[in-house]
Amino acid sequence: GAINYSDRVVAVSPTYAKEILTPEYGENMDYTLRGVQYKLRGILNGIDYTVFNPKKDKALVKNYDVKSLKKKEENKKAVCEYFGLKYNPDRPLIVLISRLVGQKGINLIRDMQYELQNLNADFVFMGSGDKNYENLFIWLSNNTNNIRTYVGYDSKLANLVYAGSDFFLMPSKFEPCGLSQLIAMRYGSLPIVRATGGLEDTVTGYPLDNSNGFKFWNYNGWDMLNAIKCALYVYGDKYVFNAMRKSAMEADFSWKRSAKEYMNMYHEIT
Fold first, then answer.
1. What does the alpha-carbon distance between residue 35 and residue 121 come to, in Å, rounded to a whole number?
2. pLDDT of the chain along its 270 residues, tens only?
3. What angle do CA 215, 121, 135 make, to 5 degrees?
4. On the CB side of 58, how many CA atoms lie within 13 Å of its CA?
């Protein structure tokens, strides 16, 4: 009823606006939506840069911005110390901050758990949700050298983890927009994402010009692993890695940008 009587239907990313026209993503509403495609708009969500600002965030051990990225390492040291990982400037830190539910692609991490243990990288998983996933992450935290877990959510710790990480893993099965990858980029943590919904629209995958992250397309653990390995390869080339960090931090995903698109849409209607 709402779809049929509305003037516009807004999805929170252009790609998701297309995906919901298909049976896979449409949740049995795809037939209705295909009939009113002229109403559909995809407008990305934004984040509040006064809240998510590594230059002023009080949760950080050391504040920094795009011109002082070396200071970011102090936050990495603090995260490693908090989680009992040995800090090594040549060893990347990959984090996941998420609800632990099927939508977020946790299955792929479960499928690749043994491969992740053998990578030259450390992992921090943070979140809560499905007990099976929580128990898996707790087990990995207690039985591996390079994987640590925080079950629950602490906003200050989360911001420190964003700031201390080199890469942000987000292997979602579907993702209407996604905010975590936007926050990660603001803190100079390069997202490794499955190219679906808003993740496709916000992350420019290596090696494209002005790339700010890494993508894989198939919902498959091996494809995720290959994207992680690509990220580790780039980590070894500090010139490219730092250029990508700057590109990520300078991207504009503010509400100011999104608000203009909403205003344009309202003017269309009136």
1. 48
2. 999 999 999 999 999 999 999 999 999 999 999 999 999 999 999 999 999 999 999 999 999 999 999 999 999 999 999 999 999 999 999 999 999 999 999 999 999 999 999 999 999 999 999 999 999 999 999 999 999 999 999 999 999 999 999 999 999 999 999 999 999 999 999 999 999 999 999 999 999 999 999 999 999 999 999 999 999 999 999 999 999 999 999 999 999 999 999 999 999 999
3. 85
4. 0
H or E element in which residue 184 lies: helix 180-186
Listing from the earlier edge strand, what are the strands of the sheet with 147-151?
147-151, 122-127, 93-97, 167-170, 190-194, 214-216
Per-residue tokens: 236: 């070894």
**3-class SS at 16?**
helix
d(CA 135, CA 150): 11
How far is residue 87's CA from residue 76's CA, in Å, rounded to a whole number? 8
